[in-house]
Amino acid sequence: MFSHDRKKMILFVLLGMLLFWVVPGIAVSVEGTPTSTLVTGTPTSTYTTGTPTATYSGDGSPPGGGGGGGGGGGASGEAFSNIIVKEKYDMHIYKDKTTSYVFTNSSNPISSVDITGNVSAGEINTAVEVLRNTSVLVKSPPPGKVYSNINIWVGTYGFAVPRNIKEAVIKFKVANSWIDENNVARSDVKMVRWDGSQWMQIETKETSTDNTYTYYDAMTDSFSSFAISGIKGVAVPVATRAAAVATTAAGPTQTANATKPGTTEKAPGFELLLAITILGAIYLFRQNKR
Known about the structure:
Layout: H1 4-25, E1 36-38, E2 44-46, E3 83-93, E4 98-102, E5 110-117, E6 122-131, E7 145-154, E8 165-175, H2 176-181, E9 189-194, E10 199-202, E11 204-209, E12 213-220, E13 225-230, E14 254-256, H3 270-289
Antiparallel strand pairs: 1-14, 2-3, 3-6, 4-5, 5-8, 6-7, 7-13, 8-12, 9-10, 9-13, 11-12
């Protein structure tokens, strides 16, 4: 039916089609590679005095700042004369990775603020202001026996909200001498946050203790004015996080993406075309032998 050369040409064409479809159609396993981010930085401390000024909108970022995201972080609006020490960092915040801002000043009860981003926001300033008295940015003193008043600011105006922050762990310490002198049970030590209209108790748990301090973790997804307080027999509303995630607080300074399970893909119509090509090749081979 076909000449010998014509048969060979058709056979080569069919074999070429077979290679064209089979090679790309071979199952390919795609496996993600774990990545990790280790973030460190150098703290700066600022001792300030001056004239009180105060306005606070309660949105979780320094009042009077710039646009809705990004780093920087200017004057917080806290009275300069009320600030004992201010410690701050500029570090990168990444989506689904944890950035640890570590604070080392001996006057600062906050040891670190560990932030997991909902977005990759670039370089973000985080500042802790340790205060002498209640912040001038709030309308009422914190509940309970107050150990320390603190402002924590993250980013510029409007950044420190759940849309940008998946979760954060504030690690702090309380002197055992203060706990004993004020007859406060260690389990009664809580962190409270000003939400713009009232003080809210945030999830707080004791993690360890030594001869000098008891250490705690507090969970939040927003930042503003805070207080560490011994709360007993006082009704304080409990804050709920926008995306409550159970987290053990070992305070990681690095996180890794989990390896993605393998996935496979094949070219559409692969099995049918393979069968037709093989049958055609067998037919031409038999015709060629006759």
